[in-house]
Amino acid sequence: MSEAVVDDIVAVLPPLLQTLESLSFVARNLNPPNFDRVMQIAGEPEEALQAVRPRLADWPEKFAHIKTALEAAIEPALAGYAGLRAVQNGEGDLVGVFRALRYLPRAQEALYPLTELPPVSGFFIAPDLREDAGLQAKLAATPNDDTGIFHERNEPGSRGGFSMYVPEYYTPDRAWPLVMALHGGSGNGRGFLWSWLRDARSRGAILVAPTATGQTWALMGDDTDTPNLNRILDQVRARWNIDATRMLLTGMSDGGTFSYVTGLDGASRFTHLAPVAATFHPLMAEMADAERLRGLPIFITHGRLDWMFPVQTARQTQGLLSAAGAKVTYREIDDLSHTYPREINAEILQWLNGEQADDA
């Protein structure tokens, strides 16, 4: 690689990665009353990114794949911040904030093919494992067959497909834990994949992120989603070696609620449930299969500041499910509103792998 191109990459990557980290910070800490404060803390990383963007203009053709990926990541990163700035300046509302934050997974998807570059690979490693030499060596090796990111009928705007990630160091000689992660009501699996990819890549799990068959999950009326999840599960298990004792169904908001709806059914094949920021009606406990509930590992995560589903609901759910015989772990996060807390993923994976005790 030419010295000039290296210099340009060294100049462009830090502000790009910082902008993505700052967008992630806003997404995690978003709470409507505190939006301006969160934006102040996030700073103005997009200004530095905008300043170095012209350095990609005149690269030799043989580096086109790097240039294309960087440009494809920079554009949505800047668009996301532009959307946030518009709301900050009084030109929109909370809906505009959510729309702006949808650019974050698009930027991450565009950037991921450049994990051949150590700083990019490090960005997609969980922070507490970035100094793990063994993990770095596994990720620096040539990817094994049938690994990486896959999309099955899951283009933006489509319904019922799925996206998935298989760690590049996957081998079929052992069974791997499965995480099936369900997006929130206005989301899709292709975007929600990035809420979990860093941890699946770092800690060794196969990740599947389906998209609901309707505009949100089948919380009322005909359940077209459970048969679709089973179809996806069959498709994945036929191709990769999945540990039948470690199959997690998790989800955010409506996705978390649907993990209860389908996961408490006696026919469910998932061994663990981990709803995040979900709601739960007491009738769901009464209607659930009693034998299924007995001893079922359930990990509930909820924010004390949740403005959509008040935390009292999660506390009541913990009591109801524990009384019904489920093995419940409950995590209440003091500074969490109705957003996805990626920091909980490591603990959920440890719990899935039986590496920590459950809470009553």
TrEMBL record:
Pfam annotation, one family: Abhydrolase_2
Q: Which domain of life is it from?
A: Bacteria
Which terms in the Gene Ontology molecular function aspect does this entry carry? hydrolase activity
Q: Which SUPFAM superfamilies match?
A: alpha/beta-Hydrolases (SSF53474)
Q: Where is the Phospholipase/carboxylesterase/thioesterase domain?
A: 230-348
Keyword set for this entry? Hydrolase, Signal
State the PANTHER family in the record. Answer: FERULOYL ESTERASE, UNNAMED PRODUCT-RELATED
What name does the UniProt record give this protein?
Phospholipase/carboxylesterase
